[in-house]
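Dear colleague,

As promised, here are the two records you asked about, laid out in our usual form so they can be pasted straight into your sheet.

NAME FIELD: protein one
SEQUENCE, THEN STRUCTURE:
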Amino acid sequence: MWPMLYPILLILVSNIFYNVCTKSTPSAVHPFAALSVTYLVAAVISFAIFFFSARGKNILSEFSKTNWTTFVLGLVIVGLEVGYILAYRNGWKMNTVSVTANILLAVALIFVSLFFYKESISLKQLLGVALCAGGLILINI
């Protein structure tokens, strides 16, 4: 049970701090300057965790195992970060921006998984999509 639970808890706690920090990013700072510092900190932490958790592994060898997804993920993460920063700067409230984005994401991923990964879609999921659409209307009016 714990291997299924702790990643979700990590995501939950990280997302809470993520939204608080993103909303609290000073409006006077250029978003990409803030993100540059953010990614420098993330790179240092990632390297340190790699160094201590992967004893005996060569980092250059590990880098050579990456493919296009690593680079696209970096681009996508920048889009996510600046999207949230701009959403908050443009007046979105914390109690609606994340819910709206995550509901839209969940609905989109149902169809991505259906068309690209050949996963099935159930009647319950379709009903969930309908409920999500209703929820989006309610929280944004």
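NAME FIELD: protein two
SEQUENCE, THEN STRUCTURE:
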Amino acid sequence: MNSSQRTFSIKASQIEKKWLLVDADGAVLGRLATEVAHLLRGKHKTTYTQHMDDGDNVIVINADKVVLTGSKGDDKEYFSHSHFPGGVKFTNIKKYKADNPEFIIEHAVKGMLPKNRLGRKMFKNLKVYAGTAHPHQAQKPETYDIKK
């Protein structure tokens, strides 16, 4: 068998993670979330390995300026339950956009990652901030344009 016909699988010691800075200003929520999930999984790399966390660390800024299309601003609600009888609670997305805009992006991206321990590990590589300021300047993040 030729060496060119062998399947390449990256080892944990060979993984190189970068820090990417994504600006959510004017970005549509779903399109932003799919791109960020793609970066977190590492599918944009030639060394993508399905069973390993070889994705990059992603910083999302301006989470409060993300755009919702259609009537989602009025209609979309998040569901939570207290695990007690009658503990159902629906919260409109407008309330989250005003109080906790980071949650909207985190919730959308988390739903697009694998539902296992690897997905939880990948999710820890996501940092979301409402404004432009973030504490990760020391990592020298590269700017990643999602509006290509």
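A couple of things worth noting about protein two: The mean pLDDT is 94. The longest helix spans residues 29-41.

Best,
R.
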